[in-house]
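Q: Study each token:
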Amino acid sequence: MSDRLAIPGPDTAWATVCFRVASTGGLLRDDGLDGQSSFVAWRSDTAHGPALVRSDRLLSSAGQHAHPYSSPCPHAPGPLPCDVHLWVDADSPDRTELMKHADALVSRVPLPPERAHRRVREMLADHSGCLAAAVPDTTTMCVVGIRGRVGAVSFVRLDRGGADAPLSPHAVVSVVHAWVVSGGSPRALRSIAPMPRR
């Protein structure tokens, strides 16, 4: 691991990502958003827009139905479908059982770029049902890997989109996961950045 401290946050959550279109060019409002929700700006080769990213913590680790899905999205469908998936902190010893069911894995320990790439490959190799993994990088935003159809790992090359501070790896991997399951090419996604609250 790294000498740097891990990024704080929950160790597992249901993530909901809703891509939005700002057709009027007006500001997005965050009415009703709680501390676990935020807007991000995404940009691809051919389009750009905002997305709402929400994390709903799992309530309990006991019982068959202890982890219900998050509540449905309260808005009309957009051009890209909303995505709900489970992400788990891969460094949390208490979540080993949940890692078998994770759609996305996250490490909160920043690593140098080469080690971050290696860690992403290891996480995806060890969890065959997982589509995406992210590790914070000590020089950029974070390293995000996607498992391809034949199991090969490809890396999404993102920039900060002009933001001074990077997003958490949880938010980044959630947007990338939503982008890929909605049919987007990982190579086409260029940046994910925080949007200020209005």
